[in-house]
Design goal:
The protein is an alpha/beta fold.
Length: 261
C-alpha cells in the first residue's frame, strides 16, 4: 500500500463515478494523451480502456513512477520528472489532450507556467484539470467579484473555461479538508495579441498587490501618470483592481509593451 506524501500534495482519486466523468469529458480514442500526476494509476487505467493513440504520464514521485511502470509496462511512456521543469512545447511534437489531478500546493504554478509559455500554436487540444474549489473559483471568476484577480485574467486571456463538476473530499484517499472542482480548458481561436505574456503577469501582479486600494498608485507606478494611456483606455483611477475587465488588463499589458519597445 502506497502512502500519499503530504510534501508532494498527493491525494489519490478513488471515486469510480468521478473517474468515469473525467474520462468522458474529452475524446480519448486514437488521441495523444498526457496525464500529469497519475499517482496510483486509477485514472490511468480508465484512460487506457478508451484506447488512446499514444499515452504519456508525468510523475515526480520515484516510488509511484516505478509502480506505474510495473503495472502498465509498455502501454504508456513514463516521465519520472518534475512537471515544473518540463518544457512541453519541446517534449511533445503532437497536440495532446491533458488530464491532471494536480498537486494542490503547485496547481496554480503549473497552470500559470503553461499559459505564460504558450506560443501562437498551442501544444494541447484541451486540459481537464482538478483544483481546490477555492482556486477553481478564482480561475473562472469575472470582474467585480471578490474571487477575481491575477489568475482569472491570465487564464481567460488564452483559454475558454468551464466547470465540469465539484468533488467532495470523500472521493479521495486520503481525504483533503476541502472540496475540489474539475475544470475544462480549451484554447481560444481569437485572443488579444501580446509580444510577451510575462508583461501581463507583471501588470496584474502590481495592480493586485493591494487589491483593496484604488488603482491610481499602481497605474502611476507602471505608466508614470501617463494621462494619454488613461484617457485612451478610459480608466477611472478611483476604481479598485477587481473592477477592471479582462480586456482592460490586456490593453494595459499592450501599452506597457509599447512603452518598452
Amino acid at each position: 500500500m502506497i502512502k500519499a506524501k503530504k510534501s508532494l500534495g498527493q491525494n489519490f482519486l478513488i471515486d469510480d463515478k468521478i473517474l468515469n466523468k473525467i474520462v468522458n469529458s474529452a475524446t480519448i480514442k486514437d488521441q495523444n494523451i498526457l496525464e500529469v500526476g497519475p499517482g496510483t494509476g486509477n485514472l490511468t487505467s480508465k484512460i487506457l480502456e478508451k484506447n488512446p493513440s499514444k499515452f504519456y504520464v508525468i510523475e515526480k514521485d520515484n516510488e509511484l513512477a516505478a509502480k506505474l511502470n510495473e503495472k502498465f509496462a509498455t502501454k504508456l511512456v513514463i516521465f519520472n520528472k518534475d512537471i515544473l521543469e518540463i518544457d512541453e512545447t519541446v517534449l511533445f511534437n503532437k497536440k495532446l489532450t491533458v488530464f491532471g489531478n494536480l498537486p494542490y500546493n503547485i496547481s496554480t504554478e503549473i497552470l500559470s507556467k503553461w499559459i505564460i509559455n504558450l506560443k501562437n500554436d498551442v501544444w494541447f487540444n484541451c486540459l481537464i484539470l482538478m483544483f481546490q474549489k477555492e482556486v477553481a473559483n478564482r480561475i473562472i471568476a469575472q470582474s467585480n467579484t471578490s474571487e477575481y484577480g491575477r489568475l482569472s485574467i491570465l487564464c481567460n486571456w488564452r483559454l475558454e473555461i468551464k466547470k465540469i463538476c465539484d468533488i467532495k473530499p470523500e472521493a479521495f484517499l486520503p481525504k483533503p479538508k476541502i472540496d475540489s472542482s474539475l475544470l475544462f480548458f480549451s484554447p481560444k481561436k481569437k485572443f488579444f495579441m501580446l509580444k510577451d505574456p510575462k508583461n501581463l503577469e507583471i501588470i496584474t501582479r502590481i495592480f493586485f498587490n493591494q487589491r483593496r486600494k484604488m488603482i491610481k498608485k499602481p497605474f502611476n507606478q507602471l505608466f508614470n501618470g501617463n494621462t494619454n494611456i488613461q484617457n485612451k483606455l478610459n480608466i477611472d483611477l478611483n476604481l479598485r483592481p477587481q473592477n477592471l475587465k479582462f480586456e482592460t488588463y490586456y490593453n494595459l499589458a499592450k501599452e506597457y509593451e509599447n512603452l518598452r519597445s
